Amino acid sequence: MLKKFIKVTKVTAAVLTASALFTAAFAVTGAADEIGSLDRTCRGYGQGKEVDENNRPTGAEMFNNEFCKYGCYAMLDEDKEIHLTFDQGYENGYTAPILDTLKEKNVKAVFFLTGDYAERNADLVRRMIDEGHIIGNHGMKHASLPKLSVEDAKQEIMSLHDFVKDKYNYEMTYFRPPCGEYSEQSMAVCNELGYKTLLWSFAYPDWDVNNQPDPSAAFDRVTGAAHGGGIYLLHSVSATNAEILPKVIDNLREQGYELTLPPI
Asked: What pTM did the predictor assign?
């Protein structure tokens, strides 16, 4: 009788194990099928010029309403916080002065790295980490995710994720879409990989090193755009940004804003 019981138990266990594996496989396949069926239309993000009574861009609010379900945000729901973020495509000699200013002013920021930047600028990346800033993922090759297959998009994100983890012992959790291009599918892929996606609620033409904005006009534009929950996109290749950053920080604080890291 005992042998018979053991035999039945083994068969039952095998059935249950097979059932569990089938359920897990179905869940994975189902999730993959769901993401694969999502809209792949490539969209180019911009916060637009329209703002509400609190100077918050309505375009950023519309983006949040559509994509926050995938952990994607262009602006946060805050009254008096602003978050500085810098895109690091390549080094132009201004990142160190920017870090000096942030350290002097006791401000933490988010730096979104491409693969090339992470590979070529180890001293600056380690300094960012050591000084308490957040390192974000801007894509290994800065490729437009909506133009990639789901598997290639995952590779674009995770190859840089794994590189930074191995080289710097740092686990990235924030992603910024290269070129500001996204789709529902690409945002779902980021979410599946455990990333929060940060776009922005303020940006201006600061990336052309051969046509830098006038510092005085840039200062007025950056400080005049202040709003609660603001995510500022700045480029570290900009000589203008490096020059005006100390005064920008002081002015934003005078307006009553706190410069903090994103709380999500």
From this structure: 0.87
Which phi and psi angles does 164 have, rounded to 5°? -65, -40
Mean pLDDT of all residues belonging to the chain: 90
Q: Which residues pair with 174 in a beta bridge?
A: 196
Please tell me which residue in 39, 79, 87, 214 is annotated as part of the active site.
87
Report pLDDT digits (tens) over 220-230: 999 999 999 99
Query: Which among 77, 166, 235, 250 is annotated as catalytic?
Result: 235
Residue 34: partners with Cβ closer than 8 Å, 6 or more residues away: 188
235 is catalytic: yes
What's the whole-number mean pLDDT along residues 165-191? 97
């529902």: which residue's tokens? 184
Strand pairing partners for 111?
A: 86, 135
Q: What domains can be seen in the chain, in order of their start residue?
A: 38-259 (3.20.20.370)
